[in-house]
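A brief tutorial aside. Many learners find it easier to grasp structure tokens once they have seen a single protein encoded end to end. The record that follows does exactly this for Bet v I/Major latex protein domain-containing protein. Read the sequence first, then the structure, and try to relate runs of similar tokens to stretches of the chain.
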Amino acid sequence: MAEEASSLVGIIETTVEIKSSPEKLHDMFVGKKHHIPSASPSFVHGCELHEGEMGQVGSVISNNLKPINMWSDGEARVMKERIESIDPENNSVTYRVLEGDVMNEYKSFVITLQVTPKEGEPGSVVHWHFEYEKINEEVAHPETLLQFAVEVSKELDAHLCSEE
């Protein structure tokens, strides 16, 4: 039985280079998450605080994600998440998905975002890390959601750069 369960558990990750500083992008995903819909209108339709304070550990936020070609069914998605940890010094934040469309396919889903400075040049590297457990073998690994995170990062970066 343990062997079967382990095949349902996975980790996928990716990085994307951006022009913004680590602090600016981290702040957007933590303290200014409610600004993301206006900064990334192609991908995020809305963001609502349900519990706690925006940018604080324990706060619960729902994100309304726009229907895009990446989703196989072209439907809008909702993701309700809680901030599990924030590390401002390392520009890192971890969210646990609590409810929404993602949880129709996964028993657990944890997203960690870390933004680090590029070595020897301006800009940053965004590192997305997803840890998850699928409900069964038919569920695909969340590559589509990972690509979605990359695209949102790029659009937020363009927005932040246009503000400078």
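Self-check: The beta strands are 9-18, 44-51, 60-65, 77-87, 92-100, 106-117, 124-134. If you spotted this yourself, you are ready for the next section.
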